[in-house]
Amino acid sequence: MQYDIIPYSYQSSTFASFLRLFATPLLLHRYRAVKLIERMALSGACKNRGEVRIHESLDELSTDLADYIAELSEASVKERGVFAIALSGGSLVGLMRKLCDAPYNKTVDWAKWYIFWADERVVAKTHADSNYKLAKDGLLSKVPIIPSHVHSINDSMTAEEAADDYEFVIRQLVKTRVVSVSEISDCPKFDLILLGMGPDGHVASLFPNHSVLNERDEWVTFITDSSKPPPERITFTLPVINSASNVAVVVTGDSKAEAVHLAIDDVGPDSLSPPARMVQPMKGKLVWFLDKPAASKLDRSQFSE
Ligand SMILES: O=C1O[C@H](COP(=O)(O)O)[C@@H](O)[C@H](O)[C@H]1O
């Protein structure tokens, strides 16, 4: 199994700024083609943990992430008429900020977006810990998404009830094919699941050594003992994450470098395996968006050009 390492950097930043401001769909398409060629030229292969994009700065990471999401949205709307995207909380939402700016705020077909959460804290939607509130304040209130397409949890229920209710909502949307279904697992097949990762290697609310990592039957489950506050959360299970068409893990900062190393590198069977390492889409594509500090402990000797 192989993975691609892409030291991602805009060498023609003036050109990129011009395009971000004035891009027509045609120019944007051409610009993406140029970037693809740059990436192919810089990419190398390693033991497969997906494609790894390493960025010089948070600004470049944010632009690349916005491009990536916009491209997947365009492809999904073309193919299925809708784009079913699951968000996470934490630093991810701030890194998606470029989607609120030109050209994405105008070129993305926001009316076709259906929003879900890969995990949510069981708190009121107005609470500072709410992943919904974070996304609403940072993204959803700034772009023309249709309110009825935003599927957040019912915050008046217990964690267990909220997980069951959320799974029921997703089941209805699978029936109407707003969310596709995986031919392999019978799980929902989201067009894109966006994950962050904690310094302990947790993704969504799948924490190290937690029994929830073994859940194979439920689509959405709950925990009441999260090692990171708040304790009560709902989360997509690994089978759902690994059934997605695309999964992106967005990680920044040197406090996460060790977890990135353990999640991506070929570390051998005796090493600790963080939950992020269990993100292995069955048929979908996995992309890591890293900044340099987060990538600083990756074993470059495993890369081959
Ligand atoms: O608690 C959570 O943490 C992770 C990671 O957050 P970050 O701020 O370190 O990026 C996040 O992805 C998850 O959705 C959230 O509930």
From TrEMBL:
Protein name: Probable 6-phosphogluconolactonase
UniProt keyword terms in alphabetical order: Hydrolase
InterPro entries: 6-phosphogluconolactonase_DevB (IPR005900), 6PGL (IPR039104), Glc/Gal-6P_isomerase (IPR006148), NagB/RpiA_transferase-like (IPR037171)
UniProt keyword annotation of Metal-binding present: no
Gene name of the record: LOC108989396
Lineage of the organism: Eukaryota, Viridiplantae, Streptophyta, Embryophyta, Tracheophyta
EC number(s) from the headed UniProt entry: 3.1.1.31
Catalytic activity: 6-phospho-D-glucono-1,5-lactone + H2O = 6-phospho-D-gluconate + H(+)
Source species: Juglans regia (English walnut)
Family the entry assigns: Belongs to the glucosamine/galactosamine-6-phosphate isomerase family. 6-phosphogluconolactonase subfamily.
Pathway field: Carbohydrate degradation; pentose phosphate pathway; D-ribulose 5-phosphate from D-glucose 6-phosphate (oxidative stage): step 2/3
Keyword Cell membrane among record annotations: no
GO MF term set: 6-phosphogluconolactonase activity
NCBIfam families: pgl (TIGR01198)
SUPFAM superfamilies associated with the record: NagB/RpiA/CoA transferase-like
Pfam families: Glucosamine_iso
Source domain of life: Eukaryota
One GO-annotated biological process of the protein: carbohydrate metabolic process
CDD domains: 6PGL
